[in-house]
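ok so for the tutorial part 2 we go from a plain amino acid sequence to predicted structure tokens. step 1 is just haveing the sequence, like this:
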Amino acid sequence: MHDNITLGYYDDHADVFYKNTVNADLGKIQERFLAKLQQRAYILDFGCGSGRDVRYFLERGFRVDAIDGSKELCKLACENTGIEIKNMLFQELEESGVYDGIWACSSILHLPVDELETVMCKMSDALKNNGIIYTSFKYGTFAGERNGRYFTDMTEETFAEFLGRINSLEIEEQWITVDVRPERGEEKWLNLILRKR
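step 2 — the prediction. this is what the tokens look like for a chain of 197 residues:
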């Protein structure tokens, strides 16, 4: 199971991953997402990793729930944010009409396409009407194991084709960025803001 490979990696490398990501500056992307939400909107951080973005949203007065599949990252994110981080898999999301926005930064890219479709439908269900999703994928057409984790990469074309299967979501914005982490600037990312129809 792909989850086991990826979650095992994050549990085993939680401290290093935390240190490498907790201070990464995603301010421009975070603000682009928040600008589409009302004050005190309810956000789900879907695969929160270090808790970096949870903290950012909380400090700006938003209400935040957060989940991660890695038990070790949940512990570190809890220490970082001061809120409970729920340890669960993406596939276990069952909420309906709860959130104004879902933030899935560099997280659901670890799902194979067939599971990604199921999870995206669950994410759409968890949103209120007209809610938004931010998500990001490494830019490209690769799918498989890389550096001890499973990845599904996307381009504008492959994501548009994929999203054509999910009637409840449409692309509102998409743009490409380079990785903000030191020595990772050659890596490109596809960023998307999706709107629930």
